[in-house]
Structure formats: structure tokens, C-alpha cells
Amino acid sequence: MEVRALAANQPVSPSKVRLVLERIVGLPVGDALSLLEYLPQPSARIVWKTVKSAAANAENNYNLNPDRLLVKRAVAGDARTLKRYKPRSRGRASPILKRSSHIEIVVEGNEGY
Q: Whole-model pTM?
């Protein structure tokens, strides 16, 4: 059974989150959480919370054993982009795009204990 968790509108670029997400796909949830604790990227904390939420959803809503869950899919999609401008010389302006992302974690496990 697949169980998902979604972290919407996280203030980090999707390309930066994907670097973290590709390392946890296929791992057991416990191993993924311990790996995410020691990754240096700031987005690893957001992903850690989302994986923890997916495991809690599986345990509380579907009575799945959290020790037997695997991270099946981890996706980071585009969310809203804030458009800002930085003043430049000669009266010009350069765009600054502050990107954000939607992070989806899908875990899969066997039913029952």
C-alpha cells in the first residue's frame, strides 16, 4: 500500500531539493531518516520532516509497520515563484526569482504488524 505526504510551498528551489531526494529513493524509512540527519544541505531538514510525516501517516491511518516501510517515490515540483528586482547601473533592473517547491514523498509497506 502506498501512503504519501506533501510539503507544499517550501522556500527552497526544486533543483536543490532534487539533489537530496534522489539519495533516499529505495531506502527503508529508518535509513533515509538517518541519512537526512547528516546531509549538509538545508533542504534535508524539510525532506526529513516530510519523510517522518509519511511514515506517521502510514502507521496511524493504515496500520502499517513503520519498520517495514520503503521510500518508493520522492518528487519535488515547482511551486509559486516570487519575482523581485535588483537595481543595477544606469537605471536598469535585474530580475531575481525566489523559487519555492512542493515536495511529495510516497512510502510503501506491507499491511499489518
A: 0.91
Of how many residues is the chain composed? 113
Q: Which residues have C-beta within 8 Å of that of residue 60, sequence separation ≥ 6?
A: none
Helix, strand, coil percentages for the chain (3-state, nearest 5): 40, 40, 20
In this predicted model, what pLDDT tens digit does every residue of 72-106 receive, in sequence order? 999 999 999 999 999 999 999 999 999 999 999 99
- Residue 75 DSSP symbol: E
Pick the CATH number of 2-108 from 3.20.20.70, 3.90.470.10, 1.20.1250.20, 3.60.15.10: 3.90.470.10
Q: Is 19 strand, coil or helix?
A: helix
